[in-house]
Design goal:
With 289 residues, this protein is α+β, with helices and mostly antiparallel strands. It is built from eight helices and nine strands. It folds into two domains: 94 residues, Phosphorylase Kinase, domain 1 (2-Layer Sandwich), CATH 3.30.200.20; 177 residues, Transferase(Phosphotransferase), domain 1 (Orthogonal Bundle), CATH 1.10.510. A five-stranded antiparallel beta sheet has the order 1-2-3-5-4. A two-stranded antiparallel ribbon has the order 6-9. It has a two-stranded antiparallel sheet with strand order 7-8. About 6% of the residues have low confidence. It comes from Rhizoctonia solani 123E. This is Tyrosine kinase catalytic domain protein.
């Protein structure tokens, strides 16, 4: 049950904040829905604004609660291990509306694209470097993000970008003490950001090399303030990327060919988008560049 999951994670060092939530100040309806759950606005009794992400059940006859609680526990445990300025900090976990929920600070600035639309003069290089740093940190502690994209980068009050939404994240080294096993539900794929190999029948789990492909798309998003392949439908992207092995076209106004820095940036992005995952750089190498 939810309470058992929360109790077990609490024993493993995750903070249980169920009793700190002021339920009367929490939103009735979710303001966003992600791959695995809904996100509600809430407040703690000390008036701190928080985001409450519940993990949605999905139906697998006879064991839906079990499957979903494992997913919830895995995501919370993964997230609780992270301590870095460019990764959203988990405040704690809670039982909220009969669901296991993850609680983190509410970020007024929202995600990357909403922030860029209201702060167009932001330094895109600084943002990109910080996003790389967050991903490099995750990889260094053996966490694969699995769904990196602008919508999963939140911007703190001071403009610092932070990687969020660990719904697809996998801890490379599974922790036997937790007693939860990896379930075999294929995570939701964000078509515009996902590496070509993620669409193979055999590849179900996200990889670090897959994160690097998505990192390239997220940096492109940071510079253009647009999602990758803005003029294409999801279906046509599949043909474009999988069959024709194409990459996004270069936004000449923003990353000009006549600029040394522009050429350097474009070279890094094209490396991130290598069709062969083995020749993509590491996140730390991208950060160093």
């Amino acid at each position: 049950s939810c309470t058992e999951v929360v109790a077990l994670l609490n024993k493993h060092g995750c903070n249980d904040v169920t009793d700190s939530l002021d339920l009367s100040a929490c939103s009735q309806h979710p303001f966003a829905s992600g791959g695995f759950g809904d996100v509600f606005f809430g407040r703690l009794w000390d008036k701190t604004a928080v985001a409450i992400k519940t993990i949605r059940t999905y139906y697998k006859p006879g064991e839906e609660a079990l499957v979903y609680n494992k997913q919830a526990a895995k995501e919370i445990y993964t997230w609780s291990k992270c301590k870095h300025p460019n990764v959203v900090q988990l405040t704690g976990l809670a039982v909220f509306r009969d669901c296991v929920a993850m609680v983190s600070r509410w970020e007024e600035n929202g995600n990357l694209l909403s922030y860029l639309s209201s702060h167009p003069s932001t330094d895109r290089c600084d943002l990109s470097v910080a996003i790389c740093d967050g991903l490099a940190y995750l990889h260094e502690i053996n966490i694969v993000h699995g769904d990196l994209k602008g919508a999963n980068v939140l911007i703190a009050r001071d403009g610092t970008p932070m990687l969020a939404d660990f719904g697809n994240a996998t801890l490379d080294i599974s922790n036997p003490t937790l007693g939860f096993t990896q379930n075999d539900t294929k995570p939701g794929i964000s078509v515009r950001w996902a590496a070509p190999e993620m669409f193979d029948e055999g590849t179900s789990l996200p990889t670090m090399a897959g994160d690097i492909y998505s990192l390239g798309m997220t940096i492109l998003e940071t510079f253009t303030s647009e999602i990758p392949f803005p003029d294409k439908t999801d279906r046509s992207i599949l043909v474009h990327v999988l069959l024709q092995k194409k990459i996004p076209s270069r936004p000449e106004q923003i990353i000009p060919t006549k600029s040394i820095d522009g050429n350097k940036l474009w070279a890094i992005l094209t490396q991130c988008w290598s069709y062969d995952p083995k020749i993509r750089p590491s996140a730390r190498a991208v950060w160093d560049e």
